[in-house]
Amino acid sequence: MRELNLSKRIGPAMIHLFFWCFTIVSLVPFILIFMVSISSEDSIAQKGFSLFPNEISFGAYQFLFNDFTEIAKAYGVTIVATLVGTAVSLLITALFAYPISRAQLPFRRTISFYLFFTMLFGGGLAPWYITYVNMLGMKNTIFSMIIPNLLMGAFNVFLMRSFFASTIPESVIESATIDGAGELKIFFKIVVPLSLPIMATIGLFNTLAYWNDWYNCMLFIDNPDLYNIQYLMTKTLTNIQFLLAKSNSTAQVGELLAKMPRESVRMALAMIGVAPLLFAYPFFQKYYISGITSGAVKG
Fold first, then answer.
1. What range does the domain containing 31 cover?
2. Is position 200 within any domain?
3. Are residues 240 and 95 in the same domain?
4. Which PROSITE patterns match (predicted)?
5. Could you tell me if 85 and 216 lie in one domain?
6. Angle, CA of 95, 186 and 90, to the nearest 5°
7. Cα–Cα nearest to 266, from 25, 26, 34, 28
8. Considering Cα of 31, then 74, then 61, then 261, what sign does the dihedral take?
9. Region 232-239: what's the mean pLDDT?
10. I need a labelling partner for 26 at 20 to 30 A (CA). Which of 8, 122, 136, 181 fits?
């Protein structure tokens, strides 16, 4: 009996130990990035990247926040685009997925096939760009970082459709219909409250996509005041003079470049870009797993 109880305790303990070790190993890259970001440039040149820097220096952060207004503007644009884009995209995805999850919808299979077709073929970059710039006039507007990604993809729609079909009881919807509730009332009062796991899951996907988006900013934005944080980081990594104090003297710029902490600045930029998501992810975590597994019950 004691051996049986011991084996029952050892099994869960080993599983917990494995996942604790896996978690720690997963955190090592983030710890390394942070440690390099607070290392002096000389210690990086001598020892390379290390979890235990010889000399602590916050020069990279001081350099980046020397002109804080640039980063503050980029953060503001990114936050607005992420919040508005995620909310509207999630609403559109849900409004698309719910009807095609209902067996009563005419041409449901045809609509689903059309949606699936978009996963295989696209219209091409040139007509896509011309449509948004010439027809919709989105050049140098914040809408150019929101509207092109509103419907993130057919995968999200199919995932949400599967959740609705497998989790929302048909009897509940029929009861609401008999009581006189319309489709919109059923959707917002019954379906949405019962679908928090998949809403949080798709919301997390959309949040990550909007927060990490720099491509649309590169295509549509020429005004530096509308750069988002990811494009600002990309531009900084490819042209380090973007964040330097502007000067007309070549010698002065060369002197600044010589003194600038290069590698630590790269890691500091990575920390600035990823830190908000690290703090936001735990709020989605309790819904994330149930949203993925419930939506995968049947397709």
1. 2-37
2. yes
3. yes
4. ABC_TM1
5. yes
6. 25
7. 34
8. positive
9. 75
10. 8
Which uninterrupted H or E stretch holds 206?
A: helix 196-211
Output DSSP code: residue 187.
Answer: I
Within-domain flag for 47: no
Q: Which helix (H) or strand (E) holds 292?
A: helix 262-295
Residues in the chain, total: 299
Whose tokens are 């953060």? That residue is 75
Indicate whether 135 and 19 sit together in one domain: no
CA distances from 212 to 105, 190, 215, 273 (A): 36, 33, 9, 8
Q: How far is CA 258 from CA 64, 184, 240, 251, 255, in A?
A: 16, 62, 11, 11, 5
Distance CA 156, CA 256 (A): 47
Task: Note whether 193 and 286 are same-domain residues.
Answer: yes
CB distance 291 to 163 below 8 Å: yes
pLDDT for 189-218, tens place per residue? 888 888 888 888 888 888 888 988 888 888
How far, CA to CA in Å, does 276 sit from each of 28, 216, 236, 273?
18, 21, 20, 7
Residue 195 phi, psi dihedral angles, 5° rounding:
-115, 25
Q: Please state, in angstroms and as integers, the Cα–Cα distance from residue 68 to each residue in 65, 80, 129, 173, following that order.
A: 5, 18, 32, 52
Amino acid at 134: N
- The model's pTM is 0.76
